[in-house]
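[scheduler] slot 2 assigned
[scheduler] job type: sequence-to-structure, two independent chains
[scheduler] chain ordering preserved from manifest
[runner] begin chain α
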Amino acid sequence: MITAVALFIGSLVLLVYSSDKFIGSSEKIGLNLGISPFIIGVTVVAFGTSLPELATSIVSVYEGSSEIVVGNVIGSNITNVLLVVGLSVVFAGTLHIKRNLMEVDMSLLLGSAFLLWFALKDLNFSFIESLIFSGGLVVFLVSSIKSGQKEEVTVLQRNTLSTYLFLIFGAIGIYFGARYTVVAITDISEFLNINPAVVSLSALALGTSLPEIVVSIAACKKGMPGMAIGNVIGSNIFNTYAVMAIPSFFGEIIIPSSVLSFSLPFMIVISALFGLICYSQKISIWEGLMLLGFYIFFLAELFRMGFV
C-alpha cells in the first residue's frame, strides 16, 4: 500500500511537471512559427491545463481500467468549480467578472454538463456520442477564437535546443506519468477494495487539477480574475468534450452505475450553482467559502461511498 501511494504521488508529480514543460515548449514553437499568441492561448494553453486528465484517461483505456475516465472528467470538473474557484476567492478576495464571459462561455459550460448527463444516463458512451462531443469541442474552440482578437499579430520567437528537448522529454514524461498513475490507482483500489472510479473522482481529480489551481490563483493575485474564471470554464468544457471523446476512440469506456446516483447529478447542480453565483458578475469571499464547504461535503460523501 505504501509503495502504491508513493508511486501515485511520484507519477502524478511527473505527469503535471511534464505537462507544464510540454505546453511551454509548444507555445514557444508556435510563436516561432508566427502563430498568434491569442490562438495559442485558446488552443495550446486550454489543451495544456487538461492534458493530465486526457493522458491518464487514454492510458486507463489501454490498461483496461476505463471506468477511471468518467470519474476523472466528473471529479476534475467538480474540483475546478469548488476548490479552484473557492481557493481563488479566499486568496484574492472578491472576484469581479466581465459580462461577456457570462453571455457566451457560461452557457457553453452548462450545455456541456447537461449533454454529459444525457450521454451517460444509459451507462453507455457510443461512437456517435464520441463524434458529437468532438463536434462540441470544435464549436467551443471556434467560439473562443471568434470572441477574441480580430487581428492576429505575428510574433516570432527564437527557439533554442532546450525548447525542443523539453518538448520531447515532456511528452515522454507525460506517457510514463500517466501510465504509472493509472497503475497506482488500480493497486490502491484493489488494496482498499473500492471502485477505481471513486479514487479517480477524488485523489486523481485533485492531482490533475493542480495546473488549474496554480494558474487561477496566480491570475487572481495579479488582478486578472477574468482569466481565472475563464480558465475554470474553459478547462471544464475541454474536460467534458475532449477527455470523454478522445479516449473513446481507443477502446470502450465503462460507465460505473454509481456516477448516476451521486457524482454526475452533483456536477450538474454545482455547474448550475456556479452560473447563478457568477450572474451578479462577482464572487464574494462568503460564496468562495460556500464552494469550499461543498467540496468538503463531496469528499466526505465519496469517502462514505468507498469505504462503507
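[runner] end chain α
[runner] begin chain β
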Amino acid sequence: MADVQGWRAKFGIIGPSTNTIVQPDFDNMRPRGVTNHYSRIFTPNADAISNESFMAGTLTIAENVIDAVRSVMTCSPNYLVMGMSAITFYEGIKGADAFQKKVEDESGIKISVGSHSTAAALRAYGGIKKIAFVSPYYPVANAEVKRFMEESGFEVVRDICLECPTWTAIAEEPEDKLRKVLTEQLNGGDVDALVQVGTNLSMVRLAAEAEAWLGKPVIAINTATYWHALRANGIDDKIPGFGRLLSEF
C-alpha cells in the first residue's frame, strides 16, 4: 500500500537542527506525490570564528548524523536526502563515498548528498570545465570543496568564503550581498559555471535568476541535491522557478 500523500516517494531529509533554509527550499521544489520528512541533526549554534572552530563544529554535526538517520527511518522513507553539505566534501571523492556508504549501510536505503549531487548537476549541463564557487564556510572547508571538485574533473578558478559567524547567521545573509558576490567577485569570462554550497545559505531563487543575467549555469546546492534525489527515483517532473537544472534536465 502506498502512502496516500507520498505515493511516488517519501524522502527522509537529514539536516542540522540550526538549519532553517533546507526544509522550506525542499518543500518549495516538491512535486505532487512526493513528501519530505525532516530529521534534525542535533547541532549547537556554535560560534565559528576561525578555521579550527568551523571544522570542529562540522565534525560535531558529522558525529550526530546517524542518530538523525535512525530517527527518520521510523517513518519508513524510501530514500534519504542530505541537507548539510560541508561534511560531504571532506577528504575528496573517497571521503564523500565513505560518508554516503556509512549512511546507506545504517539505513538500508540510498541517499543523495550535496557533493556528488553538485558534480552530477554540472555534468548535466554539459561542457563545464571551469567553475567558481561561494560558501558560508571558512577557508579550511573551501579547500575541501575545491579538492572534491577538482578530483571530479572540474578546475576551480576562484572561490569566496563568507565566513559566517554562527550556524544560524548563514541564513541571514542578505540577497543584495549575495547578488554582488555572484556578479562582482565570482563571475568572469574565465569560468563556465558558478556554484553555491552551504545548505543554510538561501540561494535557490537567486541562482535561478542569475542564470538569466549571466548567461551561464548557476547552481545552488539545495537545488542540485533535491534534483538528484528526484531523478534517482525516476521522477522527471520539470519544475519551473529554480533554474535550468530542474526545468530542463
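[runner] end chain β
[qc] chain β: Residues 51-72 form the longest helix (22 residues).
[scheduler] slot 2 released
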